[in-house]
Design brief:
Length: 271
């Protein structure tokens, strides 16, 4: 198996496995919110493959339920931040001039502020909740996408097919969305996959600090929070949520690497 097929195969396989378990797993396992004080902190066994937590809840069920939240955050952030970054980058790169300078200086200012510090500050101001986490991540994660799209459009806007479209009197918005952006599919897909992995990491960090998804709703981050107090006596409470986060982030990165190798004609032609 060639390198590019390896990345895309394993990235897709791991991601499909996580998505399938998160979507359908909770229907096939125990109620993730049902406590059983007679089954507290049981080690992994046949009846509880990933053990139980401090309230006797099945860790596997809560891990699958938490996967819905963490993956939903990733998808929502990609849609919001990706869409915002694409629009701002396209407008900035196509029209240029003072508008481009203003938008890029805005990006520079946002990049000067430590991202995690900015996100923490906004979460403290708005309050910890799933909606606020998605909103804040979406409004603070678009700068990288905007820069990538702008850089690509700067090189494409002087191409013959774009100049021919202008000469034909086609509106600017149609040139951008019908002629230019389809040529950026590789850049957008790769950047979106990497952004999804970053969103899962940040959401998990916020939830671990108690500033993200709030109990009793499970997410991979707050599962780590509830488990770290019992690390010495119940290692599985930390290991399995941490491993799920690792698999999710690794799958998105592998997927991004595979998409870049397969879709980028410059890499494909050099193979």
């Amino acid at each position: 198996m060639s390198g590019r097929k390896f990345w895309i195969f394993w990235g897709t396989l791991i991601l499909l496995l996580l998505v399938s378990c998160s979507l359908f797993g909770p229907f096939l396992t125990q109620d993730p919110s049902r406590p059983d004080l007679f089954a507290r902190l049981l080690a992994p066994s046949f009846s509880h493959p990933f053990g139980t937590d401090e309230l006797g809840r099945d860790v596997l069920s809560r891990l699958m339920s938490g996967g819905r939240i963490s993956l939903a955050v990733a998808v929502s952030v990609v849609l919001m931040a990706g869409g915002l970054g694409i629009v701002i980058g396209a407008v900035s790169g196509y029209w240029g001039g003072r508008l481009d300078s203003f938008l890029m200086r805005t990006v520079d200012v946002m990049n000067c502020i430590p991202t995690y510090f900015l996100i923490l500050s906004l979460v403290v101001v708005l309050g910890p909740s799933l909606f606020n986490v998605v909103l804040i991540l979406g409004l603070t994660s678009w700068t990288g996408m905007a820069r990538l799209v702008r850089a690509e459009i700067l090189s494409l806007r002087e191409r013959e097919f774009v100049m021919a479209a202008r000469a034909s009197g086609i509106p600017a918005w149609r040139i951008i969305f019908r002629h230019i952006l389809p040529n950026l599919s590789t850049t957008i897909l790769v950047a979106s996959a990497l952004l999804a992995g970053d969103a899962i990491l940040i959401e998990s960090g916020l939830s671990f600090l108690g500033l993200g998804v709030q109990p009793p709703t499970a997410s991979w981050g707050n599962l780590l929070t509830s488990g770290h107090e019992y690390l010495q006596m119940a290692w599985w409470l930390i290991f399995f949520p941490g491993f799920a986060i690792f698999l999710a982030v690794a799958s998105f990165n592998l997927l991004a690497e595979g998409l870049r190798d397969i879709l980028d004609p410059r890499i494909r032609s050099g193979a």
